[in-house]
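Q: Give me the 3D complex with iron/sulfur cluster.
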Amino acid sequence: MTQPTERVFSGIQPTGDIHIGNYLGAIKKWVEISERYDSIFCIVDDHAITVDYNPAKLPRMVFEAALTGMACGLDPQKCTLFVQSHVPEHVELTWLFNTVTPLGSLFRMTQFKEKSRNALYKAIAKKEGEAQSSALYQIKSLGDATVKQLTALQPDLTALEPEGQPDEALIARINDGLGGLMQKLQVGLGVSEASAALFDYPVLQAADILLYKATLVPVGEDQEQHLELCREVAERFNRKFGDVFPQVHRIPGEAPRILGLDGKQKMSKSLDNHIGVLDEPKVIQKKLASAFTDPQRIRRSDPGRPEICNIFSLHRYFTTEGKREELEQGCRAGTIGCFDCKKELAGNIITAFEPIRNRADTFRQNPQLVIDALEAGRARSSEIASQTIGEVHQLLGLGRRALGQMQK
Ligand code: SF4
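A: Here is the predicted complex, encoded as structure tokens.
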């Protein structure tokens, strides 16, 4: 493999079923990138365990992600493909980065707020009857307690004299009170259901990238906040201990946001609104048949609005321009039915993914090809990772070598 100078890092979750959104938003781009850069791609199983998951199924999901990635065109001769937990330095660097990451920056992460809010809602929705009411009562009383806490702080705040002598006990009381309140106000009550690992997720992401001193990441604008944290962590580390980590930038270009078949939310396996890259033709046809379209089209002759129809958006990636124009005109004029429009899309998706399905079959018959590719990826990643950790240990005074070099 020739090694271009700039290094790219990216990761994908082992969801077990790579769908059109993953393919168009990540894997297809990775294949193009691996032609131009030193590309390191990772199946992020350490990230996957920050939410509820099934340990018995995880290895299969990791394998499927690797197999599908390779079937989609990721060539182990042109990129490094490996599994995050096979290189334990990711977790080690996360811990070391924790020592320079301000809590305030983590509290600002909107993805954590969203995920912890979802976790809270899921936990409540799972309960029924009395158990659900009691969970809601608990939230209410937590909210009431927070408001009371805020009111109770007022006398201490009034007593604090900025010009006078610092009163240790008073400052401690204000600190404890405000600390608890700020946490609740910044992340919401959902934090009680979220794990510390979910909170630390962006630091693990920073470690993923910086462990390889990658300078480029192919992520969408929605990841800009996490990328900003990655830069902050690198800068803080460099300032405190020495210049080790580079500035990381997003590879410019739009990552398409693919909506699911419900036409409302981002395509996702967990929302069951997806078409898998390896879905059988019949499954693709069936899923598309019930997909959401323009709700104003009830009869075939009703004029449609392709600009608000997700089926038409998907045509953009699978259908020729000429055919799209024809479909658009037919939809607006009410001369084609949604059934025909979906049938055309299903046919084009099936044709586009046929070579991928065939390659996946080959890998399924020879799973060792996937295992070997991941092992080669692990070997190369480990080599770079252990060099970086060695450098970091040296600067932080950690590790066995540091003992040998201790000052008298
Ligand atoms: S004809 Fe096609 S673009 Fe128009 S509403 Fe139906 S599915 Fe959507």
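A quick observation: The chain is about 60% helix and 5% strand.
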